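Entry 12.
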Amino acid sequence: MGTGPYSMAMGSSRPILDDAAAERYSSVLYVEYTVEQVRHMETVQIVLDKKLLHSTDEAARRTKRNRSAFVREALQEHLRRLEARTLEERDREGYARQPQTHDESHLWETEAAWPAE
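Predicted 3D structure (C-alpha coordinates):
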Protein backbone atom coordinates (compact mmCIF):
# COMPACT_ATOMS: atom_id res chain seq x y z
CA MET A 1 0.00 0.00 0.00
CA GLY A 2 1.10 3.54 -0.70
CA THR A 3 1.23 6.59 1.46
CA GLY A 4 -0.83 9.79 1.39
CA PRO A 5 -4.60 10.19 1.49
CA TYR A 6 -5.18 7.19 -0.72
CA SER A 7 -3.43 4.07 -1.90
CA MET A 8 -4.11 1.47 -4.55
CA ALA A 9 -5.82 -1.79 -3.69
CA MET A 10 -3.73 -4.84 -4.48
CA GLY A 11 -4.44 -5.95 -8.07
CA SER A 12 -6.66 -2.93 -8.75
CA SER A 13 -6.33 0.51 -10.27
CA ARG A 14 -9.03 1.92 -7.94
CA PRO A 15 -7.71 4.06 -5.13
CA ILE A 16 -8.70 3.29 -1.56
CA LEU A 17 -9.12 6.34 0.64
CA ASP A 18 -7.82 6.36 4.17
CA ASP A 19 -10.33 7.21 6.94
CA ALA A 20 -9.52 10.94 7.03
CA ALA A 21 -9.79 11.34 3.25
CA ALA A 22 -12.98 9.27 3.15
CA GLU A 23 -14.54 11.53 5.76
CA ARG A 24 -13.60 14.67 3.78
CA TYR A 25 -15.12 13.26 0.59
CA SER A 26 -18.22 11.69 2.17
CA SER A 27 -20.47 14.57 1.08
CA VAL A 28 -19.14 14.65 -2.50
CA LEU A 29 -21.16 13.01 -5.26
CA TYR A 30 -18.78 10.77 -7.17
CA VAL A 31 -19.90 9.15 -10.44
CA GLU A 32 -17.79 6.36 -11.84
CA TYR A 33 -18.05 4.19 -14.91
CA THR A 34 -17.57 0.55 -14.08
CA VAL A 35 -15.21 -1.34 -16.34
CA GLU A 36 -15.57 -5.06 -16.02
CA GLN A 37 -13.09 -7.63 -17.22
CA VAL A 38 -15.21 -10.36 -18.77
CA ARG A 39 -13.53 -13.60 -19.74
CA HIS A 40 -14.85 -13.67 -23.29
CA MET A 41 -13.76 -10.11 -24.10
CA GLU A 42 -10.39 -8.85 -25.21
CA THR A 43 -8.88 -5.44 -24.61
CA VAL A 44 -7.87 -3.72 -27.84
CA GLN A 45 -6.29 -0.42 -28.74
CA ILE A 46 -7.65 1.64 -31.66
CA VAL A 47 -6.69 5.01 -33.10
CA LEU A 48 -9.43 7.65 -33.54
CA ASP A 49 -9.18 11.26 -34.60
CA LYS A 50 -10.09 13.80 -31.91
CA LYS A 51 -13.44 14.77 -33.48
CA LEU A 52 -14.62 11.14 -33.72
CA LEU A 53 -13.47 10.41 -30.16
CA HIS A 54 -15.27 13.50 -28.85
CA SER A 55 -18.47 12.59 -30.73
CA THR A 56 -18.25 9.02 -29.43
CA ASP A 57 -17.81 10.16 -25.84
CA GLU A 58 -20.71 12.62 -26.14
CA ALA A 59 -23.00 9.93 -27.61
CA ALA A 60 -21.96 7.45 -24.93
CA ARG A 61 -22.70 10.02 -22.22
CA ARG A 62 -26.13 10.82 -23.73
CA THR A 63 -27.03 7.12 -23.88
CA LYS A 64 -25.64 6.50 -20.37
CA ARG A 65 -23.03 3.98 -21.52
CA ASN A 66 -19.31 3.89 -21.12
CA ARG A 67 -17.15 4.31 -24.20
CA SER A 68 -16.40 0.59 -24.53
CA ALA A 69 -20.06 -0.41 -24.41
CA PHE A 70 -21.00 2.27 -26.92
CA VAL A 71 -18.25 1.28 -29.39
CA ARG A 72 -19.00 -2.43 -28.89
CA GLU A 73 -22.71 -1.92 -29.68
CA ALA A 74 -21.89 0.28 -32.70
CA LEU A 75 -19.54 -2.39 -34.08
CA GLN A 76 -22.15 -5.12 -33.53
CA GLU A 77 -24.79 -3.06 -35.37
CA HIS A 78 -22.38 -2.33 -38.24
CA LEU A 79 -21.51 -6.03 -38.56
CA ARG A 80 -25.25 -6.92 -38.65
CA ARG A 81 -25.77 -4.40 -41.46
CA LEU A 82 -22.79 -5.76 -43.39
CA GLU A 83 -24.18 -9.29 -43.09
CA ALA A 84 -27.62 -8.14 -44.29
CA ARG A 85 -25.99 -6.35 -47.24
CA THR A 86 -24.03 -9.50 -48.11
CA LEU A 87 -27.20 -11.64 -48.06
CA GLU A 88 -29.11 -9.09 -50.16
CA GLU A 89 -26.30 -9.01 -52.72
CA ARG A 90 -26.27 -12.82 -52.83
CA ASP A 91 -30.03 -12.84 -53.47
CA ARG A 92 -29.71 -10.17 -56.20
CA GLU A 93 -27.01 -12.20 -57.93
CA GLY A 94 -29.16 -15.33 -57.70
CA TYR A 95 -32.17 -13.59 -59.26
CA ALA A 96 -29.92 -12.11 -61.96
CA ARG A 97 -28.69 -15.61 -62.86
CA GLN A 98 -32.19 -17.11 -62.73
CA PRO A 99 -34.83 -14.37 -63.06
CA GLN A 100 -38.32 -14.88 -61.76
CA THR A 101 -40.87 -15.83 -64.40
CA HIS A 102 -44.15 -13.97 -64.85
CA ASP A 103 -46.07 -17.01 -63.58
CA GLU A 104 -44.07 -17.11 -60.33
CA SER A 105 -44.64 -13.46 -59.53
CA HIS A 106 -48.29 -13.47 -60.68
CA LEU A 107 -49.20 -16.16 -58.12
CA TRP A 108 -47.96 -13.98 -55.26
CA GLU A 109 -49.54 -10.76 -56.53
CA THR A 110 -53.00 -12.03 -55.62
CA GLU A 111 -51.79 -12.92 -52.12
CA ALA A 112 -50.24 -9.49 -51.61
CA ALA A 113 -53.30 -7.56 -52.83
CA TRP A 114 -55.39 -5.63 -50.35
CA PRO A 115 -58.83 -7.14 -49.80
CA ALA A 116 -61.79 -5.37 -51.36
CA GLU A 117 -63.59 -3.00 -49.02
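Annotation: The two ends are 80 Å apart (CA to CA). The chain has one domain: 8-98.
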